[in-house]
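Researcher: Predict the fold of F-box domain-containing protein.
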Amino acid sequence: MHCSAPLIISAVCKRWREIAFDIPDLWTTPKIYLYSSKKVALQQRLLSAWLARSGRRPLDISVAHTNSFQYELPLSNPSFIETIIKSAVHLRTLNLCLGSGLSSQFFTGLVCLPALEGLQLWAPELDEDEEDLYRVEFSLPKLPSLKYFRTNIHCVLAKFQDFANLRVCHLVSVTMDEALEFMRAATKVETCIFRDVYPTAQTSEPGEDLTHYDLKDLEIQPVALTNTQAMKLLFRRLIVPSLHRFAYNTQKVNGPAHFLWMIFFRSWFDQSVTAR
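Model: Structure tokens for F-box domain-containing protein follow.
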């Protein structure tokens, strides 16, 4: 466990410890750093006691591992994951900076996280020979209260759901169709950041158009292999009358000069404005 305020306060003296243990709000934001496989069992016991003191308060939980920690090892200690799952109904935010294989175990068997408002699933930088770990297949439970979502694990988009209350999303490594389908599912999203956008396998046809009336901030960064024609097809399918800010990062793309893109986007903006 991270040496934070509750632990410091409760270590002052017996009286302070008794007072700290009786204040549930002190124990609602545990931050767990996995740095040694030998310490996982101890961290699990500390986490269990920590969450017990939080009562029924909303929880903001963060779990991460250090670079030296072999994140396959906690898989042999499911009680650590189960400790958090037991409090899943009280989760308000969940931040997992772990390998995608371990992240997926947090959602196995979960049907719904009714109170979760913020979710970040971030796989650390991996070597090229470990890149397949990003592709572990799993889907999310129902998230009716989710407002903020950030992930670089591509497979999490395998099955879309109704993100009815989502306001902000940051997705990495998505195809053009996935980006469109995500915006189609998140009807109230206001800010979308799509990084490393890949062309869809079939880009010869425009496909079904999407008009989004709540999106205000859109940022897209395609990958190097994305061709100009593919990106134009994406924007021809997307109409955003509510857009206030748009950023298109062409740093990784081999395409036309910036002024040619400006001409194209001006036409796209005019199309969106006409739809207002």
